[in-house]
Every structure is written in structure tokens, then in C-alpha cells.
């Protein structure tokens, strides 16, 4: 991804700085796919934004799908997002499922208070072969 180029100026001896969040040359999209076994078809959900998507907008979109009763497959390594959005977590390490359960169950399995610490401990245990 190439950053946008901005021509700036600054007084002699000062470094010009450009602070911007919005990228006017891009369109951001959030999308989700769900499978309807009863109707035997795929459904596509999406929202388009002319500005960059912020974390809260992505969370709201996923919560909306969840409220509609949709199954959401959410892949991330950010445990704060997982804790806020997910009812069930599957941890995959080395191509194998090493843990599966609710956030509370995974914290209990690892005997840790935070989900992030539990994730690190479970992945570490899987790497040395302590988890079956």
C-alpha cells in the first residue's frame, strides 16, 4: 500500500509534518458471509465507507450480524476484540486445534485472569507438546 503524497511547507529549520487519518483515494468495506442451511445458499453482508473504518464500526457490524442470529467466523490475534465479540473460541496452532471453548473456559483451562495471557499460555503449551 502506497501512502498518499502531500506537498507541505514549513519554516526554515522546521520539519513539515502531515497528520491525516482519512484516505480520500480509497473505499473501505466491511463484509461478512453466512451460510443458510435451510435455504441452501450463501448470504453476503457488507457496508461501504468513504472514510477509513474505525475499530468501533467493525465491532458494530459484527454485533449487528450476531444480533440477527448469524454465525460469524472472526479471525484475529487481538484478544481484546475476541473477548468483546466472541461466544466460542477455537485456537489453532501448527495446523491443529489446540483449544476450543468459551472465553471463560479457556481462561480456566490456562488458569489465567485475562484471555490474552490464556492465549499465550495455551499456544506455548501446544508448541512444547503439553496439550493433546
Describe this structure in words.
A hairpin with a 2-residue loop joins strand 3 (89-93) and strand 4. Helices cover 31% and strands 22% of the residues. The protein has two domains: 22-71, no CATH class; 74-132, no CATH class. By secondary structure, the chain is α+β, with helices and mostly antiparallel strands. A two-stranded antiparallel ribbon has the order 1-2. A two-stranded antiparallel ribbon has the order 3-4. The two termini are 41 Å apart.
Provide the fold topology.
Blueprint: E1 28-36, E2 41-49, H1 55-67, H2 79-85, E3 89-93, E4 96-101, H3 103-110, H4 115-127
Antiparallel strand pairs: 1-2, 3-4
Helix pairs in contact: 3-4
- What is the CA-based Rg, rounded? 21 Å
What is the topology, as strand order, of the major beta sheet? 1-2
Sheet/helix structural class: alpha+beta
Uncertain regions: pLDDT < 50 for 5+ in a row?
none
Strand content: 15-25%
The number of strands is: 4
Alpha-carbon distance between the termini? 41 Å
N-to-C SSE string, H for helix and E for strand: EEHHEEHH
Q: Averaged pLDDT, please?
A: 79
The percent range for helix content is 25-40%
Largest sheet: 2 strands, antiparallel
What is the domain total for the residues? 2
Query: How many separate helices?
Result: 4
- Which term fits the overall shape? flat
List keywords for this structure.
alpha+beta; 4 helices; two-stranded antiparallel ribbon; two-stranded antiparallel sheet; flat; single chain; 132 residues
Amino acid at each position: 500500500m502506497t501512502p498518499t503524497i502531500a506537498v507541505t511547507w514549513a519554516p526554515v529549520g522546521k520539519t513539515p509534518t502531515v497528520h491525516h487519518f482519512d484516505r480520500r483515494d480509497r473505499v473501505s468495506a466491511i463484509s461478512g458471509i453466512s451460510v443458510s442451511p435451510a435455504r441452501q445458499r450463501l448470504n453476503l453482508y457488507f457496508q461501504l465507507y468513504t472514510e477509513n473504518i474505525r475499530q468501533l464500526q467493525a465491532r458494530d457490524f459484527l454485533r449487528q450480524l450476531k444480533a440477527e442470529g448469524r454465525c460469524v467466523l472472526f479471525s484475529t490475534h487481538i484478544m481484546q476484540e475476541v473477548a468483546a465479540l466472541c461466544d466460542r473460541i477455537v485456537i489453532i496452532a501448527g495446523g491443529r486445534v489446540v483449544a476450543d471453548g468459551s472465553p471463560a473456559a479457556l481462561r480456566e483451562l490456562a488458569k489465567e485472569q485475562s484471555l490474552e495471557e490464556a492465549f499465550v499460555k495455551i499456544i506455548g503449551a501446544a508448541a512444547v507438546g503439553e496439550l493433546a
